[in-house]
Amino acid sequence: MRKTALKKYKSWKHIPLALQIVIAIILAVILGTLLGSQSANNADLINHLVIPCNLILKALRALATPLIMLAILHSFLTADIPGKAGRRLAVLLLTNTTVAIFIGLFVANVLQPGSWGRLAPPVSKEALITKTFDPWSLIQDIVPDSVLKPLVDNNVIQLIFLALAFGIVLRGLKAQQISEDKTDYQVIEGVITILFAAVIRILHWIIALVPLAVFGIVAKTVALQGFAPFKALGAFILAVLLALFLQACYYLLRVKFGSWVKPKSLLRGGSEALLTAFSTASSTATTPITFEALLKKIGLRESSASLGALVGSNFNNDGTALYEAMSALFIAQVLGLHLSLPQQLIVVLTSIFASVGAAGIPEAGLVTMTLVFTSVGLPTEYIALLVTVDWFLDRCRTAINVMGDMTVSCLLDGKHRKV
């Protein structure tokens, strides 16, 4: 048994990412403690520790815009969305995501988890959080000056506008060509599918380097400020878990009053899907199990089960949106900054749009989180600090994402069971 375990982890790449992060944290704490005892003499070395972290986060930020663009285009071209049911599906998804974000911000504002520790801002406070909520400017800013501008500027709202516009047009052209027995659309569909797969593969390469980013930011933080900032992470975990629990309660209430399915039946029948989501941290990997649970264990119609589990999973990332909004507010609190209500509205809007492009793979939320931070001027380098607990919270929010998919399917099935 021991020999098999050793053989299984004979190289670093065979060690699970969560264990790699734990090892990186332990080594970083040791190094940070040693350097911290003589921080004045080791100032240059301490500052150099975050260089890998900054490079990895720059790569994630660069990957965010093509990931969202291709994820939306791929979903529009491959998902089977009937007209009337599709409109109701869109309303349900938007409602659930908006409620999730407001729950997250409410819990973060009330509990103030970031007040348990403090970090020094990388620049002066005046240089941060300069963006304010201006509805008219926002409307005028939706349409970009050029097609490539949102990709260069990491402007998530303009990016979503372009992605939705191209997605709707390409879907319409595909439907038209299918009705005319033409196959020209298959070329562009194949190109988008391959590009999307390529971006996902690059994302996996970058995620493999995340432990290095964790090592650098943790070592620097311990060396300069000790362990006080990490107390806030414990409070942050509890706050996120509470918010996710409240979102789950919201789902059960929606099912109770909007569907023939009983909340207990939803939890009992969907337990395997929820456990799979938690263990894999991937809603995409859980999709077939979710669909089977909705169809055979809960007893929904195939059309309702497929819309929620197969189509909704491409757009429904309530747990991810909740987490990203809470993360932005948490980092602002830790840095001693204040996000005003208008700025929190920007976080709401950006989180809604960014969650649309959060692919159903582990750690994809880290990519779209860079756009949420950028939207209100928060330094993205502190995302690496969140990675120390993200491997656990990622599993929790993925389970909520899947529970949201099942809730949508139940609501689409109606208040009366149809045979």
Helix percentage: over 70%
Oligomer: single chain
Tell me the series of helices and strands, N- to C-terminal. HHHHHHHHHHHHHHHHHHH
Radius of gyration over alpha carbons? 22 Å
Q: Major sheet: size, sense and barrel closure?
A: none
Look at the helices and sheets and give the structural class.
Answer: mainly alpha
Write down the overall mean pLDDT: 81
Q: How many helix segments?
A: 19
- How many beta strands in the DSSP annotation? 0
Shape: globular
> Distance between the terminal alpha carbons, to the nearest Å?
51 Å
Classify the beta-strand content into a percent band: under 5%
Which stretches of 5+ consecutive residues score pLDDT under 50? 1-6
Explain what this protein looks like in three dimensions:
The chain is globular. It has 19 helices and no strands. The longest helix is centred in the middle third of the chain and has 31 residues, at 228-258. The protein is mainly α and 419 residues long.
SSE blueprint:
Blueprint: H1 2-8, H2 17-36, H3 43-48, H4 51-78, H5 83-111, H6 135-141, H7 149-153, H8 156-179, H9 185-208, H10 210-225, H11 228-258, H12 263-269, H13 271-280, H14 283-298, H15 302-315, H16 318-334, H17 341-356, H18 364-375, H19 383-412
Helix pairs in contact: 2-10, 2-19, 4-8, 4-9, 4-10, 4-18, 5-11, 5-15, 5-16, 5-17, 5-19, 10-19, 11-16, 11-19, 12-14, 13-14, 13-19, 14-15, 14-19, 15-19, 16-17, 16-18, 16-19, 17-18
